[in-house]
Amino acid sequence: MLTSRAVCRKLAPLIRTSSTVCRQNVRRAGLNNARIPACVPAAHMSTGPLGGGGDNLKYALLVGAAFVGGITYAVITLKGDQRRYETRLSEISTRRQRSATPVQTEPPAVEATTTEAVSEPKLEAAPSPEEPRPPPEVAAAPSETSPQPPAADSTPAPPQLPSHAPYLLIGGGTASFAAARSIRARDPGAKVLIVTDEPDLPYMRPPLSKELWFSDDPSVTETLRFKQWNGKERSIYFQPPSFYIDPEHLTGAENGGVAVLVNKKVVHMDVRGNKVKLDDGTEISYEKCLIATGGVPRNLQVIERAGEEVMKRTSLFRKIEDFKSLENVSRKAESITIIGGGFLGSELACALGRKAAESGLEVVQMFPEKGNMGKVLPEYLSNWTTEKVKKEGVKVITEALVKSVSYRDDKLEIQLKDGRLVKTDHIVAAVGLEPNVDLAKSAGLEVDSDFGGYRVNAELQARSNIWVAGDAACFYDIRLGRRRVEHHDHAVVSGRLAGENMTGASKPYWHQSMFWSDLGPDVGYEAIGIVDSSLPTVGVFAKATAKDTPKAATEKSGTGIRSESETEDTAASPVASAAPAPAVENKDEYGKGVIFYLRDKVVVGIILWNVFNRMPIARKIIKDGEEHADLNEVAKLFNIHED
Amino acid sequence: MSYCKQDGKDRIIFVTKEDHEAPSKAELIADDPNDPYEEQGLILPNGDINWNCPCLGGMASGPCGSQFKEAFSCFHYSKEEVKGSECIDHFSSMQECMQKYPDLYPQEEENASQTESSSVPGSDNSAMLSENDSSPSAALDSVSPTDNQTLSSS
């Protein structure tokens, strides 16, 4: 079409001149006829290469026939496509109904492979180009093609699921639970429906890599209860099952309540229609919706390419089932290697290292950085921490880049780029989290290209009636700029804020969340704000005494988990300790102190190193956002020498 | 004596107790107690109860949430000589409800709910958090270090 147009454009002036010549000479009809067909498709452009009257008729007939033929062809094609599309759609929906509800209890290693399977069903599930939105069945497809057993529904009889939920929370983790609580507190009688693809009720994740490993109870993998250092026990679940009401009873509940739909995945979101579709085809409409889908652990490409035997011996770590599976492995394996030097990797290494003291298990931790928490702590502190991790019984291999992994002689062989070889029985990959933005396409929501996750504003709103909280939210922090935070307290704070905004509060993210980490019983820190080792830092240290360990902090305040003591902290300052700290030695002992992270001379992040119960002061400094000339003066506010 | 060293872009200062004894010269901005953005305590600036206060734990959001809210509101706004004396009915219906969920509201919780009536957030926390770990208050905010008291300028 285009080429003929181009040709015609070039020919048109020629034709015009020729037509004038032709009008003068009728005998030249043959010549004109020869030129006319070239211009027939773009006949509207030229000034009419008119030849004789007879030629005109032929020409008109030709054009007419071609026109009619073209129209007929187009209509037939479109009709055929539509028919094909409809049969395709009905086939897919029947296919989905026939297949069992996916029970997502498979080990995460298999989940990693199902993500590859997604690309195949995507091609076959894609209907004809008329479909304006990309196939929503994509997410459903892996459930059919993945190698899980087509087990029956976890519930005995198909329940009457609610078709409408005033508050719909997608995802059943910490952010979702915090939002549910917030909504229920502010909207009396609120009916909240949580939909989660996990088989468990909402629970907290931090103990999975810390406290649960220190439990003396052999049945800890079943009870999921852990003893805190002062002897008190609690479950990782936020609330026992009696807190929640059955999804079937949600609509009729007089005073409302929180219902949790487990093992159900939201696969499609219709923003215009204010409804979502689950993987079993159920549609649920909503008035306010929260997306708190969290994320999925990343894996190393070298492992994913390494084959079945390697993948079988590799685990990712995020959920309860991952904890159970790793706990099982730790009792049987001789050697476990953790790849990753961040929070999760280091905590798991320390936890396993401590367990290894009794069992003789070899625990190896390897990562590309120079020291543990290399992306968080300044180099001197990262090196000091690495020594502490080694003392916990971990073989730490720094500056390790994995080149390949293979399975040989019943052992995994990890080949590093610098030539070192590590032989092990099992690998735990703790190399980051991929935020889950599966619904972005169907919902038409923006995904952030810098940080990943759904892009939301300072009030955590993506669109009217849609909020995002937790690991999956890339939000605007008024003080610190756009960011995405993957910590427990942030999930609580953002979930609570989203719940407030869903009930009309219109508040921005303002209360700065914090995070903490314990590397063994002797080293612990709390942090707030942007804590990135690439920023310039100022660290103010005193020497640590026996009093300055996480263990001591909880024993003193008489609460369980160290983080609990924050809520007890009233405006009154803590009682000062009687014993003065000993004088600082010349040796570089980073026992306890405060580290300030600066951006353009303003403190944007603070780490309280083995110094506890001071978070409100740190929060205040970040909130102020002032330039302080002497950070030592600011450090005085923390009383680091006291308990 | 404190000393200081530089490790690339990172500055490290070691200080003795004596160095830090002099009061800080750092200036902090005065806080606005009525800042709507800030986390509020149990009682809002306008006198209402902040049902979303972490100090209440799950009391206002659980299955007995509405009974709890009625009882506590009645108590809070009560102008009687013996505060809350007219609220007995509300409190008993709340207790009735709580008895139906023993694993959510263990029976020792009765003491805690009366301690709440004194509406002092500090004691609430210690009462609820230290008494019984499986009580709803310990559930969420016990691992959430978000403090419920805003740090007012001191």
From TrEMBL, chain A:
Q: Which UniProt keywords apply?
A: Acetylation, Apoptosis, Cytoplasm, DNA-binding, FAD, Flavoprotein, Isopeptide bond, Membrane, Mitochondrion, Mitochondrion inner membrane, NAD, Nucleus, Oxidoreductase, Phosphoprotein, Transit peptide, Transmembrane, Transmembrane helix, Ubl conjugation
Entry-linked PANTHER family: APOPTOSIS-INDUCING FACTOR 1 (PTHR43557), APOPTOSIS-INDUCING FACTOR 1, MITOCHONDRIAL (PTHR43557:SF4)
Segments of this protein annotated with the region Disordered? 90-166, 549-580
Reaction(s) catalysed by this chain's protein: A + NADH + H(+) = AH2 + NAD(+)
For this chain, the family text in UniProt reads: Belongs to the FAD-dependent oxidoreductase family.
Spell out the GO cellular component terms annotated for this protein, sorted alphabetically and separated by semicolons: mitochondrial inner membrane; mitochondrial intermembrane space; nucleus; perinuclear region of cytoplasm
- The UniProt record lists the Mitochondrial apoptosis-inducing factor C-terminal domain at 498-624
Where does it primarily localize?
A: cytoplasm
Q: How does it assemble?
A: Monomer (oxidized form). Homodimer (reduced form). Upon reduction with NADH, undergoes dimerization and forms tight, long-lived FADH2-NAD charge transfer complexes (CTC) resistant to oxidation. Also dimerizes with isoform 3 preventing its release from mitochondria. Interacts with XIAP/BIRC4. Interacts (via N-terminus) with EIF3G (via C-terminus). Interacts with PRELID1. Interacts with CHCHD4; the interaction increases in presence of NADH.
Annotated FAD/NAD(P)-binding domain residues: 168-494
Q: Name one Pfam family in it.
A: Pyr_redox_2
Task: Provide the coiled-coil residue spans.
Answer: none
Q: According to its UniProt record, which cofactors does this protein need?
A: FAD
The answer to whether UniProt assigns keyword Acetylation to this entry is: yes
Per the UniProt entry, what are the Gene Ontology biological process annotations, in alphabetical order?
Answer: apoptotic process; mitochondrial respiratory chain complex assembly; positive regulation of programmed cell death
Cited InterPro entries = AIF_C (IPR029324), FAD-oxidoreductase/Apoptosis (IPR050446), FAD/NAD-bd_sf (IPR036188), FAD/NAD-binding_dom (IPR023753), FAD/NAD-linked_Rdtase_dimer_sf (IPR016156)
Keyword presence, Ribosomal protein:
no
Q: Where in the cell is it found?
A: Cytoplasm, Perinuclear region; Mitochondrion inner membrane; Mitochondrion intermembrane space; Nucleus
The transmembrane segments are 59-78
The molecular function terms in GO held by this entry are: DNA binding; FAD binding; NAD(P)H oxidase H2O2-forming activity; protein dimerization activity
Stated name of the protein: Apoptosis-inducing factor 1, mitochondrial
Summarizing the function annotation, the protein's role is: Functions both as NADH oxidoreductase and as regulator of apoptosis. In response to apoptotic stimuli, it is released from the mitochondrion intermembrane space into the cytosol and to the nucleus, where it functions as a proapoptotic factor in a caspase-independent pathway. Release into the cytoplasm is mediated upon binding to poly-ADP-ribose chains. The soluble form (AIFsol) found in the nucleus induces 'parthanatos' i.e. caspase-independent fragmentation of chromosomal DNA. Binds to DNA in a sequence-independent manner.
* Gene designation: PDCD8
From TrEMBL, chain B:
Pfam families recorded for this chain? CHCH
Q: Kindly report the protein's main subcellular placement as a broad class.
A: mitochondrion
The UniProt entry's GO biological process terms, in alphabetical order, are: mitochondrial respiratory chain complex assembly; protein import into mitochondrial intermembrane space
List UniProt keywords, sorted A-Z: Disulfide bond, Mitochondrion, Oxidoreductase, Protein transport, Redox-active center, Translocation, Transport
Q: Which Gene3D superfamilies match?
A: 1.10.287.2900
Location in the cell? Mitochondrion intermembrane space
Which ranges carry the CHCH domain?
A: 64-100
Q: Where is this region: Disordered?
A: 101-154
Composition bias (Polar residues) maps to 112-154
Q: Name one GO cellular component term.
A: mitochondrial intermembrane space
Q: Which PROSITE patterns match?
A: CHCH
Entry's Gene Ontology molecular function annotations: protein-disulfide reductase activity
| Name of the featured protein | Coiled-coil-helix-coiled-coil-helix domain containing 4
Query: What is the species of this protein?
Result: Nothobranchius furzeri (Turquoise killifish)
